[in-house]
Amino acid sequence: MAIITISRGSFSGGKRLADCLADRLGYRVIDRDIIVERAAAYGASQEDLRNALEKPPSFLDRLRHTKYVYLTLIQAALTEEVRGGKAVYHGHAGHLLLRGVSHVIRARIIAPLEYRMAMLQDALKMSPGEAIAYIAKIDQDRTKWTQYLYGENWGEPSLYDIVLNLESMDIQEACEILAGMASLRCFEETPVSTAAINDLAVASKVRASLVGNPATVDLELDVSAHGDIISVAGTVRNQAQLAAVKAIADGVGEGRRLSIEELVQKPDL
């Protein structure tokens, strides 16, 4: 079954659309809180993860290991949640985190400023001026966040399979369009696409487990999975760290064989 990701600006109707699709298709709805809770199981603070998802990067963040850590934990959490299909994710960057899986429908929903202002004013009781400033700030932060983590322009149309504009349709109509897409042959789950999401989930889980272990938390390794093999490439400091990488990958690799031919040991300085 298909996986649907919904990218949206704040107060653009993304949650309402996800709920409509869940009712229409019998899918599970996955939001940011679910992803944060699962990602925190690897040892990260839920507060830090929420801040990473909501706030633009600071100058210091650009100099630290945090970018790799956040991306690793978020991707592992999301891939595990949607792995079984029949899921709608409305949150940051699902279309980027699940690249290479053909049964993922990457949707973006946009709405006129007046629509967003009305929803915001109703929810937070803001004045029109406050609502405009709030929306502008959130959109700016999200643009910076996506550029920082993925090097992509959040609004680039080519990143999506469809862009739905609520200026000319309502949520129910947008829901019908996406529900129809879920039944199209091009978005059917196939043995190849199932293998792709499983490979991505396993590789992501190995990376997250390495980040969550004190012995390997400082590493940034390339991990991929294909068939019954997990490949790990990069640099470790010593034999103890190499042994830790092997043990962690073996422990969470779901029985796949480990290939570390490209894992290089760099002596401690």
Could you please describe the fold and organization of this structure?
This protein has 269 residues and is α/β, with parallel strands linked by helices. It folds into 2 domains: 3-187, 3-Layer(aba) Sandwich (Rossmann fold), CATH 3.40.50; 213-265. Helix content is 49%, strand content 17%. It has helices at residues 14-25, 32-40, 46-54, 66-82, 94-97, 113-124, 128-150, 171-181, 191-211, 239-252, and strands at residues 3-8, 28-30, 87-90, 104-110, 162-165, 222-226, 229-236, 257-265. The chain has a 5-stranded parallel sheet with strand order 2-3-1-4-5. Strands 6-7-8 form a 3-stranded mixed sheet. Helix 2 (32-40) crosses helix 3 and helix 6 (113-124) crosses helix 7 (128-150). The radius of gyration is 20 Å and the shape is globular. The chain starts with a strand and ends with a strand.
SSE diagram, text form:
Blueprint: E1 3-8, H1 14-25, E2 28-30, H2 32-40, H3 46-54, H4 66-82, E3 87-90, H5 94-97, E4 104-110, H6 113-124, H7 128-150, E5 162-165, H8 171-181, H9 191-211, E6 222-226, E7 229-236, H10 239-252, E8 257-265
Parallel strand pairs: 1-3, 1-4, 2-3, 4-5, 7-8
Antiparallel strand pairs: 6-7
